[in-house]
Amino acid sequence: MSAKPDLRGPLKVLIVEDNRDARTTLRMLLSIGYGHDVYEAADGASGVRLALEVRPNVALIDLGLPDVDGHEVARRIRAVLDRRAIVLIALTGYGSAEDQRLTQQSGFDVHLVKPVESAELVRILDGIPRTKENAGGT
Questions:
Q1: Where are the domains of the chain?
Q2: Topology of domain 12-126, per CATH?
Q3: 6-33 average pLDDT score
């Protein structure tokens, strides 16, 4: 008897990260390794624009962006897209209770401390529902 296929399809994932190496590593893990459709932005303003244009299932957002910080990116996205429309994941080097409280206040659903464990990220992404409106693929 064969394993039941995953008919959910790929997620649409937005990565908002100013560090090119970190962005590339995440893109390769998620697109090549797991088949997700990945979009990238190198700064906060572009990240907000892309999130509203592409309507991804999930956005991985670095908090320490040089122009518009990740907290403001989350607030701007949440002003238009609610928690049912997109899952926001904060990526940061800081993991104190206060840091986590601030990310939650900004509208993030998940707070991950860098370096992010790929198994943890994949576990979180596996739990994100795919909807007709924002399913990956072409």
A1: 12-126
A2: Rossmann fold (3.40.50)
A3: 91
